[in-house]
Amino acid sequence: MIVPLIARNTFREATRDRVVAGVVVAGVVVIIATQLLHSLALGEGFRLTVDLGLTTISVFGLLIVLLVGTSLVAKEIERRTIYNLLSRPIGRPSYLVGKWLGLTGTLWVVAGSIALALCLLLTFRGHGGTSWVVLEAAYMAGLELSVVTALAVLFSALSTPVLSALYTIGFYMVGQWSWDLRDFARQIPGGLGLTLEAVANLVPNFPIFNMRTLAAQGEAAPFYHVAVATIYALVYSGCVLALASAAFESRDFK
Amino acid sequence: MNRPAIPPWLARVIGCWATALVLGACAYALADTLARTLPRQHPLEELSYYPSGQRLGLVSLGHPETFADLAWLRAVQYYGEHRRSDMVFTKLYHVFDILTALSPHFVPAYVFGGFALAQEGAAFDRAEALMLKGMEANPTSGPLAFELGFLYYVKPGGRDLVHAGQYFEQSARMPDAPPSAGRFAAYVRQNAGDLAVARALWIGVAQNSGNAYLREIAEREIDKIDRALATGRSDLATHRLTTPVVVIGRQP
Questions:
Q1: Is the pLDDT score of B135 beyond 80?
Q2: Are B145 and B167 in contact (CB under 8 A)?
Q3: Shortest CA distance to B92 belongs to which of B115, B69, B67, B70?
Q4: B223 pLDDT exceeds 90?
Q5: Chain B interface, mutation test: which of A51, A148, A232, most B Cβ atoms within 10 Å?
Q6: Which DSSP symbol is given to A207?
Q7: What is the pLDDT of residue B121?
Q8: Dihedral of the CA atoms A57, A62, A64, A67 (nearest 10)?
Q9: C-alpha angle A172-A177-A183 in degrees, rounded to nearest 5
């Protein structure tokens, strides 16, 4: 029962943060602003709205992770509230998993709100039939953000907020390039190519979650793709949180 | 009292590491399998040595579609600016090349770019290259094959009926083809002198079209072709087509 309790408190704390509210408002404003570009898009207004809307979810979600997630643990250490928590019979892994669940929940609420606004706008524009596709792409963006949050929790447990943010951005970038890195590795013979291919498999493979291209064409991803992406997100986040727990267990707060 | 062999905190650390290793191995295997099996939305096989559009794709950090949208807005602005002023479109191909490298399935971009380059831009070879690039990325697109056929059909300075017929026919075979693709294919083949092929295509129109007027045209054309084949006079079945010129903008 400890994990849901910590998750609920983290969620409550994060949703009270002005950054999160600001991001949701900014996201909705961006989506509405895409309508101003309709007349310039030469009949491609739908595509423009869907693309920018889904990008808003990803980019603004990443912003929340960087502003809130990377200081999740560090803030508690700085305020010394962590001593109160860890002096009780609370396992350190439970503490980290609770933090991750709380912030991930916040991100899902943000992604859901922006996706809902996007669907309403599309319905208003006469493209209501594509709402399912947009929701699917938003779900995949939510999975991607869940993995990024796990990385942020890992770095937050190990380092200062600024360094955590830098490491998280670094992993986000490498993760986005993972499939290109794998293609690049295949062009290099020998050990270096194999090493690069192994690195490409180790970093988070974010292209798995990219449904934006299909959504812009009004097409949905097959169920298999969504299912394996969900499994991958859970397994990768679990692995990162286990590493974070191992590091956090070894950390001395005296 | 005996002390445990391993302190509890160390046991927990080992447990965490073991869990991380097991889940990490699963994630590694999954990533490897998925990268091989899932369809690629943005193929960047030779990423390091490719020109601007491909590099922009890397910089976009997983959002090439958004970059493509911005490029599309810029392309439309560029076209509009020069259409209203000097009618010189030197960068038009470059803009559409970047745009379609970022979004290879953006069919309207190939069509708009192709026709703008061929007509106002007076650069048919570049228009053809852009449309063929589109066909390579979207080999099953009926609308794109139809538009490419049409590009050849209205080629400024002289219609290319052979290629036009080829792409109209390809379009007609696709499930998303415009309803007129079969009729265009038959008409163009007939006027290119491929009477036997044209006859087969007209038979397809006569049998499959839901439009009585089109069926009537198809039967009339089949009669004409039959007469031409029987007498050996192909001129009985072909029309004298005009040479297309660009009415708006510069002459090629």
A1: yes
A2: yes
A3: B115
A4: no
A5: A51
A6: G
A7: 83
A8: -160
A9: 155
Q: List the domain range (segments joined by +) for residue B77.
A: 44-139
- Judge residue B205's burial from the number of C-beta atoms within 10 Å of its C-beta, 0-12 exposed, 13-18 middle, 19 or more buried: buried
Question: What pLDDT score does A189 carry?
Answer: 83
Q: Which residue has tokens 């929701």? A: A135
From first CA to last CA, the distance across chain A in angstroms is 27
Look up the CATH number of the domain holding residue B83.
1.25.40
Contact (CB, 8 A) for A72 and A149: no
**How many domains, in total, are found in chain A?**
1
Look at B23 and A235 and tell me if their CB atoms are within 8 Å: yes
Q: Can you give the residue range of the structural domain that contains A29?
A: 2-250
**Closest among B77, B50, B65, B76 to B104, alpha carbons compared:** B65
Contact at CB, B16 and A58, closer than 8 angstroms: no
C-alpha distance across the termini of chain B, in Å: 100
Answer yes or no: are the C-beta atoms of A48 and B69 closer than 8 Å: yes
Question: For B47-63, what is each residue's pLDDT tens digit?
Answer: 233 345 566 666 677 77
With 50 as the cut, is the pLDDT of residue B251 above it? no
Binned at pLDDT 50, 70 and 90, residue B44 comes out as very low
Query: For residue A248, which of A13, A85, A108, A12 has the smallest C-alpha distance?
Result: A85
Is B154 part of any domain? no
Kindly state the tokens that stand for B51: 């020109």
Q: Identify whether B110 is part of a domain.
A: yes
Provide CB contacts within 8 A for A13, sequence distance 6+.
A102
Q: What is the pLDDT of residue B153?
A: 84
Could you tell me the pLDDT band of residue B184, with boundaries at 50, 70 and 90? confident
Mean pLDDT in consecutive groups of 10 residues from the start of chain A, 254 residues:
87 86 88 78 77 89 90 81 79 89 94 91 84 91 95 89 91 89 85 90 92 81 91 95 88 68
Nearest to B66 among A51, A172, A228 (CB): A51
Domain total for chain B? 1
Give the model's pLDDT for residue B50.
33
Distance, in Å, from the CA atom of A252 to the CA atom of B104, rounded to the nearest integer, reads: 53
**Nearest-Cα residue of chain B relative to residue A199:** B28
Nearest to A93 by CA among B5, B31, B23: B23
**Is there a domain that residue B90 lies in?**
yes
CB under 8 Å to B230, separation ≥6 — which residues?
none
**Are B12 and A242 an interchain contact pair (Cβ–Cβ within 8 Å)?**
no
Q: How far is B13 from chain A (nearest CA, A)?
A: 5
Domain for residue B108, yes or no? yes
Instruction: Please judge whether B17 and A246 are an interchain contact, meaning their C-beta atoms are less than 8 angstroms apart.
Output: yes
Q: Which residues of B touch A177 (CB under 8 A)?
A: 58
**Would the pTM count as exceeding 0.95?**
no
